[in-house]
Amino acid sequence: MSSSQKLAEIIADHKGREGALLPILHDVQKEFGCVDENSEKAIAEGLNLSRAEVHGVVSFYHDFLKQADPRPVVQICRAESCKARGVEALMDDANKAAGERVRLSTVYCLGLCSSGPNARIGDKLHARLDSAALTKLIENA
Amino acid sequence: MTTIRISDDALARACGADELAAAFEKAGASVERTSSWGMQWLEPLVEVDGKGYGPATPDDVTAILDGSSDKGIGVIAEHPFIAGQQRLTFARAGKTRPLSLDDYEATGGWSGLKRAREIGPEAIVEEVLSSGLRGRGGAGFPAGIKWKTVAGAQADQKYIVCNADEGDSGTFADRMVMEGDPFALIEGMAIAGEAVGATKGYVYLRSEYPDAIDKMEKAVRACAHIVAPFVCEIRAGAGAYVCGEETSLLNSLEGKRGEVRAKPPLPALKGLFGKPTVVNNVLTLAAVPHILMEGGASLYDSLGIDRSKGTMPIQLAGNIKHGGLYEVAFGITLGELVNEIGGGTQSGRPVKAVQVGGPLGAYIHPDQFDIPFDYEAYTAADALIGHAGITVFDDTADMGAMARFAMEFCAAESCGKCTPCRLGAVRGMEVIDRIRVGGRELAGVETEPQMHNMPKKGRSPDEEIQLLEDLCETMKFGSLCALGGFTPYPVMSALKHWPEDFRK
User: Fold this and answer.
1) Which of residues 141-160 of B touch A (CB under 8 A)?
2) What pLDDT, on a 0 to 100 scale, did the predictor assign at position B504?
3) Domains of chain A
4) Is A100 on the interface with B (CB under 8 A)?
5) What mean pLDDT comes out for the span B489-503?
6) Which of A51, A84, A72, A54 minimizes the C-alpha distance to B393?
7) Interchain proximity B14–A125, CB inside 8 Å
8) Which ipTM value was assigned to this complex?
9) What spatial distance separates the first Cα and last Cα of chain B, rounded to whole Å?
10) Which range marks the domain in which residue B7 is found?
């Protein structure tokens, strides 16, 4: 199936729902790793919105990327609770381990706040990280 | 065959519960995955015949099975952390399998909904009013009054929206309800639907909670026939903290930018898609089934102090020795929570500060540890309970840096609609940076002779502090919602109690 067919299928899947835009954007992001200009255009047509409206929504939320990034992503929580448990002291080593190969992204809270520092890779969560454990996670990402 | 009970809560899994469960199965034991007891420093916690062992690793399997493990904590239900609690919302925590309808029914599930259907809409609203239940999301608005407003509104469609966008650092009670007792939340929503005449409900769940999304979707499917004609649907957020604000959440559900709406109109009258909508937090809705049981409302009203009624699931987080979920009646002091129940800091160093209520809550100094857990008492102390998350910091914390982070967070998460929040947060970071480097000198074009209307010198740190205070005042009273309006709390409290952390 070509990507434009897939895109049309995603739009058709959700079109009848109330507030269909966010579920569509989630599926598009998951399928293509981003919501690019072409997708925005197709979604706008499908939902009878202007492209500006769709672009406004896409650019508002942290979860939607403009361009796909093929690198593996490690999300590290750097909110208050993880700061209180020393996440900032791990960041130098983490950045070194990541280099150009892995994308480190900051997330504000994974909800494991008594057991930080915490990280997320895909849908898998990791808690009680120290420098060695986090470095290992990044290297294996 | 021995039955081993291990939680399948996200925190337990992040600490290796799945690998542990697999190791027990390999050793021939039968494993039941239950909700979490909430003693998070012991996760993964293994339960064998009521006795607990934790934190366990696959290396402990043999010793736990033959009873020789030194990780035993005795009978779990008698552990001081559990025995000291009064669990209503979390009555099933640790005891049931989250997605088992049998377990849910056997522990009183659906009896609140059943009774609600018998007594009818007006009586339901009356009971919620008399229970004294206040919104658990942070604002503490009486739930019954909100419901009454929606019930009284005329419309062809009304909605129940559950705010499960638990973005505050230091809070995880919503997540634990959704992962540990999802049917209780759905039952609460169905009761709300019954009370106000809404047949459609949405749970707006943040995308940072993959486990909760998965469990809630399964739970909604499993109990669809029980709550019908009420229909419940899960919608995932997209990483915007501000969508925890109710009007921004409604915009997001509608498929728009998560920008805050001006109030009025209240969501109770013009909410989702312009229809009358109940927007309640997970904990508010999950408390409802218990209140609707026979005698539930009066029991709820008998607990707590002053106008803060019932119990609050308090979350102990950050640098704390015994972190986890502690549900207790209002009125407990912060000192008891942090030092006695929480056991002080995990690092063993002295407590320096405690942030109550998430990123927008004030930093509280140990000198204030005697204030009781009560909405009004916290307001009087220039602080807030919020979602009852408590984040502990030891004496290595740099409170100047934390104050700057509060502004940085606000700048990153601002929806951009109102000026005090959008610009104020950025200016706030700059001012705090300047205070921390000792003020500013005149520079660049300011030093040119043509600029004769300029002040003749730069600003001292004290003048910068004055500027920060003015800025915070503007943000507090000029912002549309709590993000810009409450960011001054952590900033000003840090400045007030730890001014030395703002000097270079």
Assistant:
1) none
2) 67
3) 3-60 (no CATH), 73-140 (3.40.30.10)
4) no
5) 96
6) A84
7) yes
8) 0.96
9) 64
10) 3-83
Closest listed residue to residue B372, CA positions, set B301, B312, B317, B316: B312
**Chain A residues touching residue B359 (CB < 8 angstroms):** 79-80, 108
Q: What is the tally of structural domains in chain B? A: 4
Are residues B231 and B224 in contact, defined by beta-carbon separation less than 8 angstroms? Answer: yes
Residue B88, domain member (yes or no): no
- Select from B83, B114, B132 the last residue of a domain: B83
Q: Does a structural domain hold residue B348?
A: yes
Point out the residue among A19, A108, A127 whose CB comes nearest to the CB of B253.
A19
Q: What is the pLDDT of residues B219-236, one digit of tens each?
A: 999 999 999 999 999 999
Secondary structure of B32-53 in HEC code, one letter for each residue: EEECCCCEHHHCCCEEECCEEE
Asked if residue B486 and residue B374 are part of one domain, the reply reads no
**What residues have CB less than 8 Å from B261, skipping those under 6 apart?**
B247, B248, B250, B251
**Which string of DSSP letters, residue by residue, matches chain A?**
--HHHHHHHHHHHHTTSTT-HHHHHHHHHHHHSS--HHHHHHHHHHHT--HHHHHHHHHH-TT--SS---S-EEEEE-SHHHHHTTGGGGHHHHHHHHTTTSEEEEES--S-TTS-S-EEETTEEE-S--HHHHHHHHHH-
Q: Quote the tokens at residue B38.
A: 């909430």
Residues B287 and B310 in one domain: no
Contact state of B391 with A81 under an 8 Å Cβ cutoff: yes
- Say whether A113 and B172 touch across the interface (CB within 8 A): yes
Same domain, B122 and B189: yes
Residues B352 and B404 in one domain: no
Residues B372 and B383 occupy one common structural domain: yes
Closest-CA residue in chain B for A56?
B257
> pLDDT exceeding 70 applies to what percent of chain B?
100
Tell me: the pLDDT tens digits for B49-88? Answer: 999 999 999 999 999 999 999 999 999 999 999 999 999 9
Query: The domain that contains B370 carries what CATH number?
Result: 3.10.20.600
Residues B246 and B107 in one domain: yes
Chain B contact for A107 (CB, 8 A cutoff): yes
Q: What is the C-alpha separation between B283 and A90, in angstroms, rounded?
A: 34
Q: Does the beta-carbon distance from B257 to A118 stay under 8 Å? A: no
Residue B94 counted as domain residue: no
Q: Under DSSP, is residue B408 helix (H, G, I), strand (E, B) or coil?
A: helix
Q: Do B168 and A107 touch (CB under 8 A)?
A: no
